[in-house]
Amino acid sequence: MKKFLERLLEEKAPGPYPSFSIYHLIKAFELVAKTGQVGRGKLAEELKIGEGATRTLIERLKTANMISVSKKGCSLTKKGKEIWNEFESIFPKKTNLEKNELTFADCNVAVQIRGGRDRVRSGVEQRDAAVIAGAKGATTLVFKGKRLVVPNVSEDVSLDFPIAYRQIKELLKLKENDAVVIGGADTWSRAEYGALAAAWTLIENNGV
Questions:
Q1: Residue 72 within any structural domain of the chain
Q2: Which of 16, 102, 195, 201 is the most core-located residue (most Cβ within 10 A)?
Q3: Could you tell me which residues come within 8 angstroms of residue 116 by beta carbon, excluding any fewer than 6 positions away?
Q4: Pair (113, 150) in one structural domain
Q5: Total domain count, the chain
Q6: Where are the beta strands (DSSP E) in the chain?
Q7: How far apart (Å, rounded) are the C-alpha atoms in residues 166 and 169?
Q8: Are 140 and 198 in contact (CB under 8 A)?
Q9: What confidence tens digit (pLDDT) does each residue in 142-170 have?
Q10: Can you give the CATH number for the domain in which 147 is found?
Q11: Which residues contact 154 (CB under 8 A, 6 or more apart)?
């Protein structure tokens, strides 16, 4: 899945190099999957990118046989639904968080990564990916031994950051070896893109 989606970003001739990134592609994919059908104007508005970039994104999804396009808008094909199901199995939940002891921005979005714990080191890679995506940064947590842990910061979030722990436990149904990244920014869209970009670093090309 990762290889497939990233190939859609590669330069193709003829046509310009895409002015969108993997998190725009993921968000577009999510919007089509969850609404059933969405128009180009709505996509551009939600993705916060121009009409031209949106047209290129739609064309690449269409060429890859992930969506079909009609006068009513874009909808997933059978192949698109299969890839979306795989995506949801790896990223089962994305949710907004209220401010807590672990968050550092006005807007904070958490993404759950199934089985992502083993690819978390210090969390620096996820933070850097979030910043490149426009967020202020990202916090990475892992669920191991039935405890929520922030590498190099806390061995038990329930004790050190109880408000954050309650929020995360209530909103995400964590399983052993899951990872969670929280993207923080001044706007919800940047926080979401930061979280998605950070989460994307925690899956391998051959899947989780």
A1: yes
A2: 195
A3: 142, 177, 178, 179, 199, 202, 203, 208
A4: yes
A5: 2
A6: 67-70, 73-76, 94-97, 107-113, 137-144, 147-149, 179-185
A7: 5
A8: yes
A9: 999 999 999 999 999 999 999 999 999 99
A10: 3.30.1360.30
A11: 160, 161
Q: What is the mean pLDDT of the chain?
A: 89
**What's the whole-number mean pLDDT along residues 7-28?**
72
The CA R_g of the chain, rounded to the nearest whole Å, is: 17
Confidence of residue 15 (pLDDT cuts 50, 70, 90): low
Q: Residue 117 carries which side chain, given as an amino acid letter?
A: R
Calculate the alpha carbon distances from 17 to 53, 57, 72, 140 in Å: 10, 11, 27, 31
| Residue 178, pLDDT score | 96
The one-letter amino acid at 138:
A
CATH of the domain at 18: 1.10.10.10
Instruction: Answer yes or no: are the C-beta atoms of 124 and 132 closer than 8 Å.
Output: no
> Which residue matches tokens 């923080």?
184
- 72 touches 81 (CB < 8 A): no
Per-residue pLDDT, 208: 42
Alpha-carbon distance 143 to 187, whole Å? Answer: 27
Say if 206 falls within a structural domain: no
Pair (47, 105) in one structural domain: no
For the stretch 162-198, pLDDT in tens is 999 999 999 999 999 999 999 999 999 999 999 999 9
Same domain assignment for residues 83 and 101: no
Each as own residue / partner, the long-range contacts of residues 157-160 (CB below 8 Å, 24 or more positions apart, any chain) are 157/102, 160/101
